[in-house]
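protien #1 (seq + structre)
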Amino acid sequence: MAVIAKKQKMTDYENMSDEQLVQASLENQDCFYYLMKRYEPRILRYSKRITNVSEEESADILQEIFIKVYRNLNGFNQKLKFSSWIYRIAHNEIINQYHKKKSYSAMISLNIEDDDVNNMARLVRDTFDVQDDYIGRENIEKVRKALKELPDKYREILILRFFEDKSYDEISHILRKPAGTVATLINRAKSKFRKIAEHHKLESLI
């Protein structure tokens, strides 16, 4: 019976909203495990998408992010979206880590995996106004190259929008920029991406 009760309690926590879990974590630190479990894969993936680090370094960064998240839970505004809040902490921690090493841009390698093909297709479709969902292996590499050649601020905002599927409002909160500025940056980023992609002859292969 005790095992059944424990499983039931676990299910209850897993079904909670982010905001409910934050409140539960403030009352019982053991509940923070469920927030970590929910966000660990996402934050790790985000970190790998914009950095060039080993698995060990990724794990260290992830640990620092969650330490900061836990220490600042009291400061979380329940009116805001938790996912945007934790991404902002992750974003800041990643940049801080790379400022300790040579430079942020020097560390970027864009570890986009094959699972991100659909996200690449979405970016290409949105940029070139095409309907085709298919991106071949050759095009995948061309998209990677085009993204890597973008300035940091444009590359990251495209990753947040198309790979992390964040809304304009969420990106505004993550980067601490007005929504209008985010919209402008995304449009400029897509314009830059288009020019670079055309240089790589990406548009002729869609």
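ok now protien #2
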Amino acid sequence: MTDMQNKEKDEIFREKNGQIGDFAFGKEVAQVFDDMLARSVPMYAEFQRMISEMAADMAVDGTNIYDLGCSTGTTLLALDQSVPPGVRFVGIDHSVEMLEKCREKLEKHSFCHAFELVQADLNKGIRIENASLVLMVLTLQFIRPLYRERLIADIYQGINHNGALILVEKVLGEDSFFNRTFIRYYYDYKKRNGYSEMEISQKREALENVLIPYKLLENRELLLETGFRYCDVFFKWYNFCGMVAIK
């Protein structure tokens, strides 16, 4: 059976819950996370393919690739066959349960590259060394805004000259009209993928104080002000955006 067939279905918010706590990346979420992403993130498989395509051009033999917020290792697996053999991967996540799932997946698929998985809180900053590529796929939005500038500066400091940062984020519309409209389209997308109104509502409440998106231009400004020379958008779907920046 394929991984798609083996995925446990996300039903975390299926039942009515009188008190919704903050969303957390614990064991319950880790078990269904792959299904959650496939059904909740538009064109997830396609932008993973795009990241892998860009990584093939950007990764340098003898350097490191960091995946910050690596979760269950989907992005690491996508890059395994596309980057030079001498590249070393470092996956970092705050959730022990996610890292356990990640290691399990990498071993199951006979991951070819040297790798290290590290438990760390990105709100406290990060040490990056000898990196030709750093990935943040749906991660920065979970970092407290107070700490984002420092985190991006830490990443910039550790990326080699001509190295890249690939950032995928949920974003706000540039004005309230588009923001409301894009969110409505997004919830329609989730309904098409089998989520009920109650599931959507309860997850939205759980994420309210945890996932804090910026506007696309705010993220771009953050990258350029940190020192990245070039920055462009490689993916956009209503309120989701992929950006790549070069040091």
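The chain is about 45% helix and 20% strand.
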